[in-house]
Amino acid sequence: MSGHFITFEGGEGAGKSTQIERLARRLEGQGHSVLITREPGGTPGAEAVRHVILSGHAKQLGTELEAVLFAAARSDNVQQIIKPALAAGKMVLCDRFMDSSRVYQGVSGGVDEDFLLAMERAVTEGARPDLTLIFDLPPEEGLRRAANVWKEDGPDRFESEDLSEQQARRQGFLDIAKAEPDRCRVIDATQTLEEVNQAVDTAVDGFLRTTELTDHR
């Protein structure tokens, strides 16, 4: 795979969607071919799974089955969208990926880590992120921001959970960043929009420079 795979992670209301769109425009302006996708989602089948999960209809089936649904959606996205785009040399920007499963179903959901990692290996098929941007924000502020964009039907399956769950997830993402510093960059999402923009650009530009140097060796 000759393209680059960048994932955006973090808790509710951290600004991932805003940043992924802005970064895509910036990269396209630099001449890169960019594809944006999301999880769960990206393909018709995965979008259908997204609706089932975020509506809360799958919650009664248990967190482990929810993790299986996420994995099924991820497999479809990887096979139909992500791997073909990477093979074509595109920059793939994905709003959530494997780390969200590790945190939402693992850390706060209690699903066995070995079970999650086995599914992760099976469905990613080698399409693992080159760079992961983790947007860090206190959950109180994240939920406040998220509330400003809720539709008439209110918060989704994960936005509606209590503060202790949100706090556990925040720490889960930070633990991943600490464990995998070569892949992950933590973005302080409490900063102004301009400062967050700059932090994202600095992280991505640094990654691309390092990649170019490695490719020319």
Which of globular, elongated, flat, extended, rod-shaped describes the shape?
Answer: globular
Q: Please give the largest β-sheet.
A: 5 strands, parallel
Radius of gyration: 17 Å
Count of beta strands: 5
Distance between the termini: 18 Å
Q: On the 0-100 scale, what is the average pLDDT?
A: 89
Structural class: alpha/beta
* Strand order in the largest sheet: 2-3-1-4-5
Assembly of the depicted chains: single chain
Q: Give me the strand/helix succession.
A: EHEHHEHHEHHEH
Task: Work out the strand percent.
Answer: 5-15%
Segments where pLDDT lies below 50 for 5+ residues? none
Quick take:
The protein is of the alpha/beta class.
Please, could you describe this protein's structure?
This protein has about 220 residues and is α/β, with parallel strands linked by helices. The chain is built from 8 helices and 5 strands. Helices cover about 55% and strands about 15% of the residues. A 5-stranded parallel sheet has the order 2-3-1-4-5, sandwiched between helices. Helix 2 packs antiparallel against helix 3. The longest helix is centred in the middle third of the chain and has 25 residues, at about 65-85. The protein is globular and about 45 Å long. The mean pLDDT is about 90.
Tag the structure with descriptive keywords.
56% helix; alpha/beta; single chain; 217 residues; 5-stranded parallel β-sheet
What's the structural blueprint in terms of helices and strands?
Blueprint: E1 4-10, H1 16-29, E2 34-38, H2 44-54, H3 63-87, E3 91-95, H4 98-107, H5 113-124, E4 131-136, H6 139-147, H7 163-179, E5 184-188, H8 193-215
Parallel strand pairs: 1-3, 1-4, 2-3, 4-5
Helix pairs in contact: 2-3, 3-5, 4-5, 4-7
